[in-house]
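Example (one chain per record):
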Amino acid sequence: MSTPRLVYPKHDVGVFFEAQSTTLAKIIKMHDRDEKEWNAYMTARERVLIREAREKK
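Predicted structure:
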């Protein structure tokens, strides 16, 4: 069974980063709307990964 892909329209997101090292950065500022959209996206991706893990058992 194929897992449906989540597709979101592309848009620019203003994000401010703080360098933690030469290869790691921490997001320090992001618009509230963009943060909510990102959180919803991550939650949906996690649910898909959990479902896939359950199906493999």
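Caption: Strands lie at 15-19, 25-30.
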